[in-house]
Amino acid sequence: MTTEISAAAALTHPAAVPLPVTAVTCLEDRAHVERTTTVRLAPGLQRLRFGPITALAVDRSLRAELHTAPGTEPSGAEPPGATVLDARLTRTWTPRAPGPPGPDDSALLHRIDELEKELRLAEPPIQRLEARLALLTQLCAELLTEIGEGTGHGEAEPVRWSRELDRVEAEQDAYAEQLRAARARSDELYRQLQEAVAARGAAEAQPPELLAHVELTVVAPHETAAELTVSHLTPCALWRPAYRAAFTGAALAGGAQDAPGSLRLESDAMVWQRTGEDWTDVRLTLSTARSALAAEPPRLHEDVLTLRELSSGERRTLDVELREEEISALGPDGPQAVTADLPGVDDGGEVRVLRAPATATVPGDGRGHRVPLSAFTVPAAAELASAPELSPLVTEVVAFRNPADHPLLAGPVDLVRGSGFTGRGELRFTAAGAPAELAFGSTDGYRVLRETSEVRGSTGLAGLGQRTVLTRTVRVHVSRLSAPDEQGEQRITLRERIPVSEVSAVEVRLRTQECRPAPDEADAEGVLRWELSLPPGGRRTVTLVYEISASAKVAGL
User: Fold this and answer.
1) Which of 441, 494, 475, 487 is nearest to 546 (CA)?
2) pLDDT tens string 407-434
3) Quick one: pLDDT at residue 4?
4) Can you tell me the mean pLDDT for 364-380?
5) Residue 177 φ/ψ, nearest 5 degrees
6) What is the largest CA-CA distance in the chain?
7) How many angstroms separate the CA atoms of 210 and 205, rounded?
8) Where are the domains of the chain?
9) Would you say 42 and 6 are in contact if contact means Cβ atoms under 8 Å apart?
10) What is the pTM of this model?
11) Other C-beta atoms within 10 Å of 26: how many?
């Protein structure tokens, strides 16, 4: 886009020139918008006006730069280019003119106007009918009073009184029916009005009443064509990662478990924005930077440390407690530190920047729009896994490694199998080359029952190395409920855990001889694994026995 600017516009308000959005960097809770256009400048001081743009633009973040367009420099030595002396945002409020909708308005707006008129016209008849019924009620009360007084004075007129009462009751019934019909019509009009308003809100974007323009004061030493770049921050925009996983492999129900399969993982960005303007064919960049966290320095508080001598009772006892610890392995080199409770996007504590491979269009309707980022296909294997301490269900888990050169951010995953969409799962933050797992739902062909028991005892003599021994027994019963035509065994991965001691006064020992069967694998975090093979209709029982031994000075177990 090229705009002609003359020197006569230096002291006047020039007409606004469109300034489209060309690039957007979407942050976690806001967006950095970049606009670019080409203008032809005349020599001297001049004022430029561009827009309209979103009124949500942050004034203090406004930046404007002019760059000489290539091929437009005069012959000889290159003189200084054009310079931006001042850049500011000006806002104008243009409310909608009162009155009925015009011919350019939508059919929904005309329908809403008609319903509002009918609703206003329906109110006066209801009020008149309510007033008439109130008068009839008062008339009936006065007639009953007259009947009582006449009867007391011996002036009885039963024929006239009966005729008057019948007339009043007939009029009450007639007006009550009219009032019911009028109220029913008013309620129906109100319902139709609410539906029309909701339909217009979902289908049409309201024209903004508050608009902003960018006003620049520019000085150019000579006539030239320059490229103008204007950038600013705007709220009401955010993004979150989303995925679609399609697994292709052998069916677990057929008995061919651990057969090689493939997983296609498509990474997308769900972008929402309601800035008052559409982003059409923009270069989209996604960032996990949190600029709001650096707005204020942390508050400093006094931390007073005091020293005191331990009492004799404290010297004789050692307080311990059980603590739940999350096991994390972000990369192939082993566990790494994880920042807990990250707000919004989980990026592993480091700012990540992703770029859309193609231009994207995001309407400013406040709805989520999916923007493709990347996709890859990786070998994967499925297994039936169960952790009875956490859940009695047996889940199909697909394991793979992240082959991309960038981490996968945490986000929801649409799960797809050969039969189609099977549900929605969650992908945790996964570093490049790190293993990851996706749960494709539970299976109804298994039942898991977990039982625990505990025995407390002691060894040694009091005062001479006496220790408290806590023996725990865990039994897990696994049953396979198979159809009559099922054949072949299926393998289930069962996981249980034992405590891990961090102090020398407490020891945890696995009684391998009493475990039936013995665990196939035990890691340093205390997680034990069994590989169980079950035929159709089969049942297995796993027994885990371990003991916790603590010296006499330990308290808290």
Assistant:
1) 475
2) 899 889 999 987 788 888 889 888 888 9
3) 45
4) 91
5) -65, -40
6) 127
7) 14
8) 2-96+208-234, 107-203, 240-272+305-443, 446-555
9) yes
10) 0.70
11) 27
